Amino acid sequence: MSTTENRGQFGSKLGFILSAAGSAVGLGNIWKFPGKAYNCGGGAFLLVYIIMVALIGTTVMMAEFTVGRNAHKNALGSFRAISQKWGFAGGLGVLTGFIILCYYCQVGGWTMKYIYAYIAEAKMVYADPTAYFLGMLGANGFPLQGAVIFPLIFLFLTAFILSHGTAGIEKMSKVLMPLLFVLLIGLMIRSCTLPGADAGLKYMLNVDFSTINSNAILVALGQAFFSLSLGMGIMVTYASYLSDEDNLISNTGIVCVLDTLVALFAGFMIIPAVFATGIDPGMGGGFAFATLAGVFEAIPGGTLFGLLFYFLLFFAAVTSSTSIMEGTIAFLIEEKGLKRNHALLGTSVVVFIIGVFYTLSQVYMNIKGIWVSKNGIEYPIFGDFLEYLTDRLLLPLGALFSVICVGWVWSPEKSVEEATSHGRFKFSLAPVYKFMVKIVDPIAIGVIIVAGLVF
Ligand code: PFF
Question: Which residues are listed as membrane-spanning (predicted)?
């Protein structure tokens, strides 16, 4: 017990749930999910996504929770506690988190830039939403605000919250997560009641099985890992701060349900509004920035709703960025002996420098023609590469190592022992969990990795 006390612990069950949900609910739910749902078939994609979360997401999360709570150590130490040789699984998670953090803090900065934009210069955004978005990324010269100033403020905030340890994470989550839900539900009702929104609602509720193909399944599973914060040792690290009496089974269920609800609500907030205003949703990173400006311009009171929306996105981003950075910080403190504040400062500086190149590579460097050309195909030199590497390879690989380590090196029985706090809690689905962790999850994730690399 003493180790737990020395390294800090969540003060309450609610604090843990809100912090873990805060990590899961992030840019992935609001920035990434609606665009993917729109592009991969609407209702059919929602169905596939829910099945992926229910079967694979929940079991991988439970596996990660049990690894962390068993050892009460950072991700690397927790895997090592199972087998000395498996430390690399945690080490890989720390590395993946560090890479994600570099771009996550940049996009977090963009959300702050848009809060500023809707307060100070909404007219400029409306005049040409795409030009405004690309201008932030450097279409008209060095993007000082989009790449440096706002991401720096965002990064500073993330590090500041973490300088207060788990108490900082918990306090922030207790305030921001309920606010996030209220904002999200309010915006969703506004969107669904717009004239013409019913076409979007139909698209999201109509399950057309012909749109379910291998690509939709791949996208859904990759999205589920990112969205649930799996494969990076974050849930391992968070669970390591839990007491031995906490119920991991109900915690897994609650976090997965909350995260999925937010993704669905975000879909029902964005898609009906896009249909109602007849705007071409476009793809990728501009969805939550450029596309939505047209929606906010078109609806009554839209600028206020726009402002609330970017606050929502910002809250979601900061409760996730803190979790991603905590993975690196816990590792530096416990494995490398650094003081918390030194670890925070060092990490922030490196993340900032690499991150600047992420934003620059979106438009500024590409415009100047810095591309890598291979076999006649041009690849953006940096930005897309970071996301490609983490979403398609490193996160699923991390999840694969988690389930193999629990299913084959530790043992599903011991994992269940930990999940039930040695018989304290009932777990009627334990046989299903053991089978999933040992057999189904490794095969499904292995297929995803190979398919993701080949297609
Ligand atoms: N789950 C977060 C989101 O949906 O934005 C992002 C994330 C956080 C991914 C923590 C991975 C992670 F370990």
Answer: 12-31, 43-65, 86-106, 142-163, 175-197, 217-241, 253-275, 307-332, 344-365, 393-411, 432-455
